[in-house]
Write a structure and sequence with these properties.
Blueprint: E1 13-14, E2 17-18, H1 19-38, H2 45-58, H3 66-82, H4 92-104, H5 108-127, H6 135-217, H7 222-251, H8 286-295, E3 299-305, H9 313-334, E4 339-346, E5 350-357, H10 374-384, E6 388-393, E7 399-406, H11 411-417
Parallel strand pairs: 3-4
Antiparallel strand pairs: 1-2, 4-5, 5-7, 6-7
Helix pairs in contact: 1-2, 2-3, 3-4, 3-5, 4-5, 4-6, 5-6, 6-7, 6-10, 9-10
């Protein structure tokens, strides 16, 4: 099977700057230098051409040092005025430097100062124009062009800063989302570890009781003692497995949330979660849970396929929580009156919990308070037992959640393997 082709965009840089920007600035500088060569036949000769070359060279740094470039170009333009060469073609460098300082300078006051200097230069340049027209007409023309360049630079600067602020805000929101996701995963891991700790403690209590029974019945009723010893061994295996998972939950670093639809925040609300925080529910209570959701306005149709198998307490709790979280999400997001098809598919190797809603309910008047973390919590719980979770929208506008949890091997199989 071939691997998908990924298109990767590589931004080439030169001198620490994007290649396109450098190429554009070189073209602008060459354009000014071309005007300087043309001005060899004008008053000033090669000296004026050298001034034009100096302006062109300065423009190469107009993005990184806009204020310094504007100052250098202004000094060279002043030297041109003092030499009485009159306005020349390469003076377009003055407008380019003005635009650059307004757009790229860190502070707008540098652009304002450059605009004032340019206004003075407009008057001085107009005074050196041949008297074919009134001097004020030249001032008006040069002033309009300079003002237009300054305003264009200001508009581009405003748009540039706006885009930068949007990018910074998006980056901040992304960092906050990642931080909230990590916090949610850490909180859910703590909750899972606490519940697994209760499971292990319960198993240890059972082992102690059965071991005491073995001691008291060993001589009087060997058959009962053997059965009790088998219960101790089986319970010990389960407790050891749960302890291994508990240590894995506490040690494993938080996994990042895969890209996809936003994780719906789901947790049993006060009216739907009747058990206290320290109590561990079981699958025999699943009908009561479904009745509470039906009373809350959710049309739940539950079906079971295959032969249900006895589960370790921790895995049983995970199946119960996945059903609970899935129905809570359906109630909160599909709304009251939505229909949910819940299916528990049992096979010798796994149990699959599948919840599909039609998304056609009406919004809840008072949304259920959030206490869990929806898909994040379900994914963490399923991951503890090496299962898989898929969730996403359906073609009909609803939502589908499917969790597959592998079943442990039978005790007899484990003993033979041992």
């Amino acid at each position: 099977m071939g691997h998908p082709v990924r298109w990767v965009t590589v931004d080439r840089v030169i001198f620490g700057r994007p290649l396109r920007s450098v190429a554009f600035d070189v073209a602008v500088s060459g354009f000014v230098a071309l005007f300087a060569v043309i001005e060899v036949a004008q008053p000033g000769g090669w000296t004026a051409t050298l001034v034009g070359f100096a302006m062109a060279l300065a423009l190469l740094f107009r993005r990184t040092h806009p204020s310094a470039v504007a100052a250098v170009v202004a000094v060279l333009a002043l030297a041109q005025v003092l030499a009485h060469w009159g306005p020349l073609g390469y003076d377009v460098a003055v407008l380019i430097a003005l635009y650059s300082v307004v757009k790229y300078a860190d502070r707008l006051r540098d652009g304002i100062a450059a605009g004032i200097v340019a206004a003075v230069g407009v008057v001085l340049a107009a005074l050196q124009v041949p008297r074919s027209a009134a001097w004020w007409a030249s001032v008006l023309w040069f002033g309009m062009v300079t003002a237009a360049v300054w305003l264009v630079g200001l508009n581009v600067r405003t748009r540039r800063l706006y885009v930068l602020s949007l990018e910074e805000r998006a980056a901040t929101l992304e960092r906050e989302r990642e931080a909230e996701s990590r916090a949610a995963v850490a909180e859910e891991r703590t909750r899972i570890a606490r519940e697994l700790h209760d499971v292990v403690a319960h198993s240890m209590a059972v082992m102690i009781v059965q071991a005491d029974g073995v001691r008291y019945t060993l001589d009087r009723d060997p058959a009962t003692a053997r059965e009790a010893a088998k219960v101790v061994a089986d319970t010990g295996r389960q407790a050891l497995e749960e302890m291994r998972r508990l240590v894995g939950v506490l040690r494993e670093p938080s996994r990042p949330e895969p890209a996809g639809p936003p994780a719906a925040v789901a947790a049993p609300d006060g009216g739907l979660s009747a058990e206290p925080a320290h109590r561990r529910p079981a699958l025999v209570e699943l009908p009561d849970l479904l009745d509470r959701f039906r009373a809350a306005g959710l049309a739940v149709d539950c079906a079971t396929t295959g032969e249900p198998a006895p589960l370790p307490p921790g895995l049983e709790l995970t199946v119960y929580r996945v059903v609970q979280e899935s129905l809570t999400n359906a109630l909160k997001h599909a709304g009251v009156g939505a229909s949910v098809e819940l299916n528990l598919d049992w096979s010798p190797s796994a149990v699959v919990v599948r919840a599909v809603d039609d998304g056609r309910g009406r919004p809840m008047v008072r949304p259920a308070p959030s206490g869990g973390h929806g898909l994040v919590g379900m994914r963490e719980r399923v991951g503890v037992y090496d299962g898989s979770l898929t969730a996403g929208p359906t073609l009909g506008g609803g939502w589908r959640v499917e969790a597959r949890l592998p079943l442990p091997s039978a005790p007899g199989t484990e003993e033979e393997a041992a």
